[in-house]
Structures are given as structure tokens and as C-alpha cells.
Amino acid sequence: MLRAVEVDVVRDGTSLLRSISLTVGPGEHWALLGPNGAGKSTLLDLLGAVKHPTRGIVEVLGHRLGRVDMRELRSFLGHVNPRHSLESGLRVRELVLTGATNTIELVPRWVPTAEQEEQALRLIGVMGMARKAEARWPHLSQGERGRALIARALMPRPRLLLLDEPATGLDLAAREQLLGSLDVLRGEHPALATVLVTHHLEELPASTTHALLLREGECMASGPVDEVLTTDLVSKCFDHPVRISRVDGRWSARA
User: Which site among 46, 216, 234, 250 is 20 to 30 Å from 100 CA-CA?
Assistant: First the structure.
């Protein structure tokens, strides 16, 4: 699904990523973790075919960046950004349908097919939003918006879903609803690969399979999640002594 080999990113003379390598296979669910400024969002931009690396190789769904139309490639990805720039009062059903056209607003005079309408409602249901299908965007809570955006990202039936801090700003109940919905989604789509960016271990779904720790643009550890999210490695990554525990599949960190 994704392959990065010895990737560097330099912007305005500043090194943002150094020698990053990563391979994501079908059905794998990766977490990118690290403190603020570690380079997580920069790496996600590369994996989402938004930006090019300065050096190194990035392949997305088998296509090498620099040799492919990046805009066309992005249409095969599901990219969830909680800072979605929608300004109108679309209903949840309409918002999800914009995923079929890869636009922020509904395309004028575009009419979805019956299959697309059915798919949108099914995805809304998978994300636990069936009772909110006709609710308007301005009236949704932050957690409801996050789940609606994930449903939207799934409309093109992507093989890869990228989530940029999807639990940002959520209260406890909304966070748990979101993470539960992600676990259900991953169970229903076993071939789907996901990459989730966060700096809070408590925001990782139990279905997470792999993790990569970033610090100051460098990879500190990468691999199966139980080998990476250890007390020693996480403490070094965040430069603070913490104790990592996992209960019922979920992680927590305590000083």
C-alpha cells in the first residue's frame, strides 16, 4: 500500500524528516506517534501524495511520487482531516456524498446514483451516525463531524485511509465512540490499510497493528505495535519517563 525508502524532507533550509523508511501492507493499521514538531504531519503529507520528498523514494498504491499525477492518485486515497474547510450547512448524507466527487461542496447539477446514495447511508451507519444522516454540519458536535468525515473518506472505496489526529478536540465519550467506530470499520474491511497520526497513546484504537515513533524528524522505532510502544522507547521518544500499559487492547501512559 505504501513504501518510503530513506526519505528526507528539507524546507527553507530546515530538515523536517531524515532517512525515514516505512512499508505498510494490506490490512495493517499503523500509528505515527511523536511529540509536537516531530514530523508526523509532514510524513503523512508524503504518504497522502500531497507533497514530494526532497530525497528518497515514496510509493503510494504502487505509484512512485514524481512519476504520477498526484491529484489523480489522491482520488484513490481516503484522507481524514478534522480541520475540514466546509463552510455551508450540508446534511451529513450530503457531506458523505461529496467523497464520491472528491470535493468540499456538492457539485452543481451532479446527481448521485442510487448505488452511491445507498453506500453513503451504509457508511453513515457503520460509523454510528444513522440517526444523524439528515443533521446539518453546523449542528454536529466535533466527534460527530469526525465520524462523518471518515464515512466521507470511504465513499471512493479506498484501499488506504489516512487519519490526521482524528480525536483532536473530542471529549471522552466522543473519543470512545470514534475509536470504537474505527475498530468496527477495520473489522468489516480486512484488506483496508490505515495510518493514524497522534501524540496521545490513549487515542489509538485497539485494532492498531504497527507503530512508528518519530522524534525531531528521525525514526526512533518502527514495527509491530507491541514491540514499539514500550515504556523504554516511548519515554525516549517524548524525552520524559513514562510507564506504558495496555488493558483490553488500549494503551495508556503514566509518569
Answer: 46
